[in-house]
């Protein structure tokens, strides 16, 4: 992990999280607060299967295994270690490092939400690929899938479906 020099700052602020730079034939990635890590470590963090695994991997990168083994967040003994007798008090983790992990996690969660939205859009477009009316460049909606695109008008039982954002009637196999 390397500290950013003044020349990596732009207008008094650091680059965004995920900014890549070439550093002595190695690619490093900005993880926040001017700290850069090797791209392989950054990719390991991003490919985590859950937010808790992500935080575990990020804390290993920010603090290192040795520090994590002999430290706690607060610097106090856990109830379990209090029962063991007189052992030295653990050192607290650096608050700026904890803030950094929190900032990285927020960025990770935002990217996860965006990737889920993209996957949903891809699934919808794949599902409706066969229902596209080439002449009118619109989607042909059948009765079975009309509910995916809008809400049924419950006041009038005329089996018309309306788009959720407009007053457009979606009816059976009619074009939108």
TrEMBL record:
Superkingdom in the source lineage: Eukaryota
Record region (Disordered): 109-176
Listed Polar residues bias regions: 163-176
GO biological process terms held by the UniProt record: negative regulation of DNA-templated transcription
InterPro entries: BEND5
Biased amino acid composition, Basic and acidic residues: 134-150
Residue spans of biased composition, Acidic residues class: 109-133
Protein name: Uncharacterized protein
Provenance organism: Microctonus aethiopoides
